[in-house]
Amino acid sequence: MKYSVDKQDRFSIFSLMEDKLNSLIAPDLKTELVILNNEGYHNVIVDLAQVNFIDSSGLSALLVGNRLCQKAGGCLILTNLTDNVHRLIKISQLDSILDIIGSIPESRDLIMMRELEKELKGEAPASTEEDSEA
């Protein structure tokens, strides 16, 4: 699986560089999302700009990542969806479960807004890699 990860202070950007997110790729994606979560990255932006096809196993991997992030008090955001992928997510009625945002900057802004809201409510800020090493 070809991908890149850009780890920021309060979120990470996971860019999948594959044409298809199918049963060959999905287990690796799921593993990487679990690793990010275990490293303390509970806000993950998944950039799917290069993905033109997604099957049920790919959707399942994204749902696992979404569940992990939510249980840790964060969120998983899908961004830069191609028309085919967006249509498949809508047909699967997962657009009401998954956060879908148009671009990485908009996704980053949403995460920062949610983190600020948590801080204003007195909730603990999202842990980062530095926090887990302390």
Question: What's the topology here?
Answer:
Layout: E1 3-7, E2 12-16, E3 20-21, H1 26-38, E4 43-47, E5 53-54, H2 56-71, E6 75-79, H3 83-91, E7 99-101, H4 104-120, H5 129-133
Parallel strand pairs: 2-4, 3-5, 4-6, 6-7
Antiparallel strand pairs: 1-2
Helix pairs in contact: 1-2
Overview of the structural elements:
- Helix 1 packs parallel to helix 2.
- Strand 1 (3-7) and strand 2 (12-16) form a beta hairpin.
- The protein has helices at 26-38, 56-71, 83-91, 104-120, 129-133; strands spanning 3-7, 12-16, 20-21, 43-47, 53-54, 75-79, 99-101.
- The chain has a 5-stranded mixed beta sheet with strand order 1-2-4-6-7, with helices on both faces. Strands 3-5 form a two-stranded parallel ribbon.
- It is built from 5 helices and 7 strands.
- The model is unreliable at 126-134 (pLDDT under 50).
- The chain is of the alpha/beta class and 134 residues long.
- The protein has a single domain (3-133), classed as Transcription Regulator spoIIAA (2-Layer Sandwich), CATH 3.30.750.
